[in-house]
């Protein structure tokens, strides 16, 4: 790919409709001048920064930081439209929104069920691990509307109606519960809210599953029995489950199925979620998102102050970069809706002005739905900039004659940095070749724009810059200083490089190092790797595994929702990790909790200095460089100074709320948006569980948590003292109270994490997984029909949501579904991947070897439908939807069922029957062109994350 002839070779701009070569200096100068003019006239939110899932971790982090210094949360990347519903659904079930086990661990599974995934084509290397599991005796079940190459290997193939996954999963859960096949001990000890699930699934008889999902009753029973009799089992899903208006409900239902079976936290079990390529996970973790800062810290004041401390930037300075404090703390507009951010009536947009400038930085426009609206938005913006190794579909699609720029970014083979795979392993990647032609690395392009915008000195004050190139290792060290929530703190460059140098010393199944110098480490330190690099945590290969100590990579479920909700205990009961000194559930760690347990004496003087600084707002970066001798000398002096400084200051830093917004499913709207449950790090009204009733709060803690050991009660007391239900958020706190509220997420010393792990505790507490998510629009997952459905008979029983406002924009649900399009468009359209191509296809369709294997775009049509419609194999047909039509070759096949058609999504260069490939710059046309599926994919977005619907819309087939 790095040597492809179709690479962009130098910067270009469009002048009177023609591409013209320009220099880098001219490009940066002109683009920055235009953007600064737009910023001055319309505000910082009028520039949209669309980033990439192909960034290194360091660039992903740098890009989110760059958007913050520009002054906007209108920043996003590919994960919004591939796995955002996974992150929201799984995080709100277990605590973290990521794959729980490892690829290698699949060979230990007794059963493998794949729902909405086709790894044989979409994740071919991952498929090898699946086949290893099958060779070891695992029963393999594939649930998919198509009989795919993956399904060919299955012991049981289940053809499902597109969009009907929740009904099928609930049918499985009902059978398991009705027969007493659930893991009762696991549910009692480690899961909250299962009784509401029992009530919800009661109606999902095998007959109702068949009516909604199209699956025969005997097959549903057979699948349920197979899963129950072959444990531990793994559940794998991909975008077939996630890309839906109820994607967050689908991923939660899948998670609940695994909880009911007791398959979480066990070797051979897990919710194994395959990401599309090598840094979708990392770019998500490092915050290229419109509702989080890096490491899933949200957008509340406390989260901003945390990152300002890490960056060495004054919070007040950062706040002034934004249009207002409200906009600074409000989620931006998601990439799936960027065209609405441009085209929507300004009166309906909850920011001062619409988006006027759009930057595609490593993102394919043809991977986004509603092609006609995208085309209109591209024509409307005042400035359009593409930064990419290839010109992408934008170059051919954009109708603008001027103010369009193409900047050549180096490929991933042309830079240093780390990447994170689906199973959370962080791997260092060295540069293979120097940037070709006139391309530049993302690091350098970011730095050049920061200089042109005037904030480079502030943004890079703690990052080493070599010439115009920020140093990847230095960026990673800054990442290590701030990402305490998910444990990216121990993976410094030295440890990652050491693993790459000694790959031969790791066991290929357990992934654990067998020999020095990596003995005991897990390969590539899967997060969370707790504490500082010096503490040498080995990483966590399997999340929520209580059979190991936390120091050895074990974990309970996360206590991220407080200790109780509406009078019900949210902490684990009689379940804890190996070696835990609290042999029951306990809340997340704070200084107050360490004090109450008598463990704060274990902190070093340096850790105490940093914690005092964080708690009182006097932290300075040079505290991180103190040696212990100096720290001991300064500690007494600092403690006396703190009291004096706070007394003289009217601006006391009392807000430490750390809302992990995306993982909480935050949809913005202040604190009241759908799915917004505040993860209050150091205080706040919702910290003790959100909505506990007052009468329950009056009862003694001992009565509310009977049978808990004394240390657990002490920890709960300390947590409730730091998170009182009746204290206004704005109430002033004493210095001591401020310090006691510093917690494991905001302690920049790592001391809280170190001490808790030394006592056998997980820094984030020991809670229950949630089967019921009170902060989502649907407390329990429900089947709702797609907005465009041919099954009008299932309405209104399974109708969608009411229209609403969220993410700064209005969003439509019922107003679309209430219109019957099914007579005109009687077939279901779904889409997916091919093994030959990746993503938008710009790189892979420009590879001559891959192009040879797959030379044209096509639509799969069932043989019965083809006969009825008079469609002949390998002839052109039109695929029409309510928003447009595309012309493609027909592939008549029984892979798809009657009434369903399938389109791959990697193509571009055609537009509704017209060849537009002559609009690419000279020499940049891919070898293969074709219609983009998303030209005709219709409106539809997940209620929690704004994931686009691409798996279940409607269409008709016309002879072409």
Automatic annotation (TrEMBL):
Localization: Cell envelope
A molecular function (GO) term: molybdopterin cofactor binding
Residues annotated as domain Molybdopterin oxidoreductase: 8-451
Residue intervals of the Molybdopterin dinucleotide-binding domain: 827-952
Major localization class: other
Cofactor annotation: [4Fe-4S] cluster
Alphabetized InterPro entries for the sequence: Asp_de-COase-like_dom_sf (IPR009010), MoPterin_dinucl-bd_dom (IPR006657), Mopterin_OxRdtase (IPR006656)
GO biological process: anaerobic respiration
Location of the region described as Disordered in the Swiss-Prot/TrEMBL record: 644-700
Keywords: 4Fe-4S, Iron, Iron-sulfur, Metal-binding, Oxidoreductase
Ranges of compositional bias, category Basic and acidic residues: 644-659
Entry GO CC: cell envelope
PANTHER family reported in the protein's UniProt record: FORMATE DEHYDROGENASE-O MAJOR SUBUNIT, TUNGSTEN-CONTAINING FORMYLMETHANOFURAN DEHYDROGENASE 2 SUBUNIT B
Family: Belongs to the prokaryotic molybdopterin-containing oxidoreductase family.
Protein name: Molybdopterin oxidoreductase domain-containing protein
Source organism of the structure: marine sediment metagenome
